[in-house]
Design goal:
Layout (H helix, E strand, L loop, with lengths): L3 H16 L3 H8 L3 H9 L6 H11 L3 H5 L14 H28 L9 H21 L4 H20 L8 H24 L1
């Protein structure tokens, strides 16, 4: 009989490949490093019980399945498309922001409110980016956060400018230049740290 580490390693690798994940993608799903996944798949180390449970849940199998060498023609469940589910949840959250903006617009049209009512939609853009940033931080690629932060900064400046349009505060956009430089330097610093 094979060593239990080798059995678990072979099962994890087979399930990962079947699902179409890279080691890095699996690591991201489990919130571990790709080095840890590589060690598990080579048999150099073995995930603890909690991680085994997470792996089994992710691939729709039992922990017992991961620990057994023989799988007598078991029909494996379809691998859930986690990325699609995360995308749908993120899009639903963004749609909720726009629903709220529409409700505010409609409510304000029936009230004696002064000012441009369309601003509720303008402010929905940075709010949507905040939601996208949060969900990307949880499930997405962290490198995209810098793009979302840049877009958030510029749309916030634009929303403030459009809200204060009568005062012509175009100099607000000058704030965005050092802000963008800071974001780019921050992204570059993270890239350097990751290489080390």
């Amino acid at each position: 009989m094979k060593d239990i580490r080798q059995i678990v390693a072979a099962n994890i690798a087979a399930l990962r490949k079947r699902a179409g994940y890279t080691q890095a993608a699996l690591a991201q799903q489990l919130q571990y490093s790709d080095k840890a996944v590589s060690k598990w798949e080579s048999g150099a180390s073995m995930p603890d019980a909690g991680v085994l449970l997470s792996i089994a849940s992710l691939f729709g199998v039992t922990v017992d399945y991961l620990l057994r060498e023989e799988h007598a023609e078991e029909k494996l469940p379809a691998v859930p498309d986690v990325r699609r589910r995360h995308l749908v949840i993120s899009l639903l959250a963004v749609a909720l922001v726009w629903l709220i903006a529409t409700a505010v617009f409609v409510f304000l049209t029936f009230s004696p409110a002064e000012g441009p009512l369309w601003l509720s939609f303008i402010w929905a853009v940075p709010a949507s980016l905040i939601v996208a940033l949060v969900f990307n931080s949880i499930w997405g690629r962290r490198r995209r956060n810098y793009l979302y932060i840049s877009l958030l900064m510029w749309t916030l400046l634009g929303a403030v400018y459009l809200t204060c349009l009568p005062w012509n505060l175009w100099l607000l956009f000058v704030i965005g230049v050092p802000g963008q430089v800071i974001i780019l330097l921050w992204a570059g610093m993270q890239k350097v740290e990751k290489k080390q």
